């Protein structure tokens, strides 16, 4: 039986992007199934009293976070462009992720959005830009946007975000494997170890 790895994420999280770049290789090495769980990070922050790293009040820590980010980019050797619009309100795009799941186009949607956000620096908080990016990738951006406004889709995102908080999440990326929670891109080595022991 294949092990399952749950990946709770938000497209507005650069460390979620970095972690995402590693999941294919991780899945292949451990023969696990990755279950993608799009949540609203802003809602998680509000529910837990946490805050975005961009709102870090200690200037030296905030500056160091940028250095650390570049170290991970170099370590993974992946494309990365710090989005000039960060932090972005991701409510619409996270709802659209749930719509994409219902429309059976999640994989293509997922790859397109992470690329647009963290490789090409697009302002995906602007619905017109978001739809244009999806259309350019061959997706029906208008239908995804329309479905994202349906009550069932809104509820799906809310339920996923609430579940994440209920299970102990306070930020992104958050992973669950074998009943244990792992927070952060820098915990993937522990995730892999846990998967190999499943």
Which descriptors apply to this entry?
4-stranded mixed β-sheet, 9 helices, 198 residues, single chain, alpha+beta, globular, Glutaredoxin
A few lines on this structure:
The protein contains 9 helices and 4 strands. The protein has 198 residues and is of the alpha+beta class. The mean pLDDT is 96.
Summarize the structure in words.
The protein has one domain: Glutaredoxin (3-Layer(aba) Sandwich), CATH 3.40.30.10. 56% of the residues lie in helices and 10% in strands. β3 and β4 form a beta hairpin. α1 runs parallel beside α3, α2 crosses α8 and α6 packs across α7. The termini are close together.
* Structural class assignment: alpha+beta
Under the CATH scheme, which class?
A: Alpha Beta
Give the total of beta strands: 4
- What percent strand? 5-15%
Number of helices: 9
SSE inventory with pairings:
Layout lengths: L3 E6 L4 H17 L2 E6 L2 H8 L10 H18 L14 H12 L3 H13 L8 H10 L4 H7 L3 H16 L7 E4 L2 E4 L4 H10 L1
Parallel strand pairs: 1-2
Antiparallel strand pairs: 1-3, 3-4
């Amino acid at each position: 039986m294949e092990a399952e790895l749950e990946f709770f994420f938000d497209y507005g999280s650069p460390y979620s992007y970095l972690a995402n770049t590693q999941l294919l290789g991780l899945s292949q090495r451990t023969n696990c199934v990755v279950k993608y769980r799009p949540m609203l990070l802003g809602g998680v922050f509000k529910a837990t009293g946490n805050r975005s790293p961009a709102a870090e009040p200690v200037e030296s820590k905030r500056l160091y976070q940028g250095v650390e980010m570049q170290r991970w980019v170099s370590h993974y050797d992946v494309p990365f462009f710090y989005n000039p619009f960060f932090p972005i309100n991701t409510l619409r795009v996270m709802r659209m992720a749930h719509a994409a799941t219902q429309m059976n186009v999640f994989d293509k949607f997922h790859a397109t959005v992470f690329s647009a956000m963290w490789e090409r620096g697009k302002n995906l908080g602007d619905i017109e830009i978001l739809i244009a990016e999806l259309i350019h990738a061959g997706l029906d951006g208008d239908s995804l946007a329309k479905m994202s406004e349906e009550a069932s889709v809104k509820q799906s995102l809310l339920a996923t975000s609430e579940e994440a908080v209920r299970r102990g999440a306070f930020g992104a990326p958050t992973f669950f494997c074998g009943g244990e929670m792992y927070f952060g891109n820098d915990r993937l080595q522990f995730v892999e170890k846990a998967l190999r022991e499943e």
